[in-house]
Amino acid sequence: MCERIVENKLEIGIIGAVVTVLLVVCIFTLITSDNTGPVIRVDESSQISYTEGQSKDVLLEGVTAYDEKDGDVTSSIRIESMFVSGDVLKVRYAAKDKHNNVTVYDKFREVTYIPSDGTTAEQQNGEDGNASSQENNQSGEQPDQNQGETVNNETDNAATSNLSEEPDTTEGQGDNNGEGMDNQSGEQRADATAAIDKEAVDRSGIPAIRLTDNEVTIDAGTNFYAIGYVDETYDDAGDVSGRVRVTGDYDSDETGDYELEFFVTDSDGNVSESKFLTLHVR
Predict the structure, then answer these.
(1) Is the pTM of this model over 0.70?
(2) Contact yes or no for 84/260 (Cβ under 8 A)
């Protein structure tokens, strides 16, 4: 009987020791485990610009990452996503610590974007505006000359008749131009998800782009990554996936309908047909 009691106590002691060891191991594992990703910091005072085709290393300037357990992990920073909007290149970063915990920066960094031809959208708009002004001046001078000739060569009644007919012609031209723009706009909005005709690209040398959707609806406040809706790009000379551009402003926190234009360029400056994505924020 006594031996039985001793054996039971011994078994209990062994079980207790095993449980204690397991508890210690669990506690140690919890203390030493790392489930938190690094903290990414972007120096907003660091004003940088990016020229199309330039090394992406310039986009990492002023960006650091620090992990509580692993220390400085800046070398792990990578560009998680990027897209062009007008004269701005929007870049989002990600970093990883030694335990493979990944952190994605919570907003896009805005960098001045310079196309390969060196002309920004603002400069282009200025040139277009100057050209438009010159055209308007020229068109403004022409009626004066015509009117002068009419007055000199014809009677006042004939001059009045000619002057009244000219606005009608102009108005008709305006209507035709408007219809042309509508038709052109309709052609541009072809199915964005249609398969890329790679044989046609090989023949023409003009790259192509394909989207995953023609339109998408999200709840206000939801994170939206426009570049993520690019399904495929193709060019006869190589990979152009890093040369996708997205234009059109949107605010995923503000309800409304937004139209985004996607296109891609190749190293020779060829530009693909634009594909459009309509974003509904509800």
Answers:
(1) no
(2) no
